[in-house]
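pasting for ref
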Amino acid sequence: MQQPCNDQQCLSILSLTQLVPLHSSDVVLVTTTASDGDAAMEEDETKRAWKAGRNEGEMSWGWKLMASILYILPWVDITEKSIYFTERFPAFAWMEFFTEPIEHWYNLHEFVPLIIFFGLYLGIVRNKQISHVARYHIMMGVMLDIVAMILIVTEENLPTGILWTPWSDLFYALTFWFIFLMIAYCMFFCFLGWYCEIPLISEGVYMQIEQAESMGG
């Protein structure tokens, strides 16, 4: 036969239980631990702290223009390595003219890309007073630039048996069109002031913005 609990045990059991009414005639007994409740409360407070003051407003034309200029940065990286593609397909050589005004300043020094990255991340991405969709497109331009650099590094480390074969031409063509279509897609939604979703890349952008906001700003 089960022994009745003493006063201290009964108080402990009552502190770990709460009543959740479903209907006027039904009551469900839900048991929770104090540690889980405290952890959930701390997590909610943390989220509210770094999300507080976030600007969810529309994207102004000034930020649309700035984001569209930043979308040219990955195009600058690709056009430097797409000389073989444009030589093979001269009809697309005109695309290189869009990057000439920015290419000179972007390649002025080897630390310029690093300075641009930290300037954008610390000065804009973590600033919650700026519209969230504007910061999203700013960070998307940075992420596309990282993807372009990864493709360039891959191209530079292709085996010799592939580098001077038709397979290398295929790689150049795919890289060229992949970055071009991604930039065109993102710029289209940028001028509309909407979010653009790209698998894997968009998740990385959201994570970077949340991490920057959690740092404060």
